[in-house]
Design goal:
2 domains, 8% strand, mainly alpha, two-stranded antiparallel sheet, 4 strands, 160 residues
Length: 160
């Protein structure tokens, strides 16, 4: 009777181990197919993954090699990040052509010599070469003409 109980215990133990591995195999196949649907919109790929699941435990290794590297959600997030980055770069380049007026704060182009909103002057013309100069410059860097500090509208160079 003791030998019969030991043999029955071994049979139950072997059955439990086989059942465990069978349930594990079914769970792996289910997980593989679910992951394939998350990584690809192709139904053929999901069916291929299910067929790979028929190879016990070897199918999961093959699937891990052939599956797409990112899920569809990760691909969408990556595409949105790339769009946001491109938009940000486009805005940065567009904004680099403008600046804020130091007096009124409105956006004006970098080449403006006077603010069209508040009429703040940013530059003046050299009397000799007619090129634009910043207001604080004492000499024209293009023709070396002494310009001094003078009022808007021209006139002779101020003497110190």
């Amino acid at each position: 009777m003791l030998a019969l109980d030991a043999a029955a215990g071994v049979v139950v133990g072997v059955f439990a181990v086989v059942a465990f591995f069978a349930v594990l195999w079914v769970a792996l196949v289910f997980s593989m197919v679910r992951d394939a649907r998350r990584r690809s919109e192709s139904q053929v790929f999901a069916l291929f993954t299910g067929a790979l699941g028929l190879l016990p435990y070897l199918g999961i290794l093959i699937y891990l090699v052939v599956r797409p590297p990112r899920t569809l959600d990760e691909e969408r997030v990556l595409a949105l990040e790339e769009q946001a980055l491109a938009l940000s770069e486009a805005q940065d380049t567009a904004m680099s052509d403008t600046r804020a007026c130091p007096n009124c704060g409105r956006e004006i182009e970098n080449e403006f010599v006077i603010c069209p909103y508040c009429r703040t002057q940013f530059a003046r013309r050299c009397g000799s070469c007619q090129r634009w100069l910043r207001l604080g410059w004492q000499v024209c860097p293009y023709c070396a003409e002494e310009v001094g500090v003078r009022a808007f509208g021209g006139g002779r160079a101020a003497s110190s």
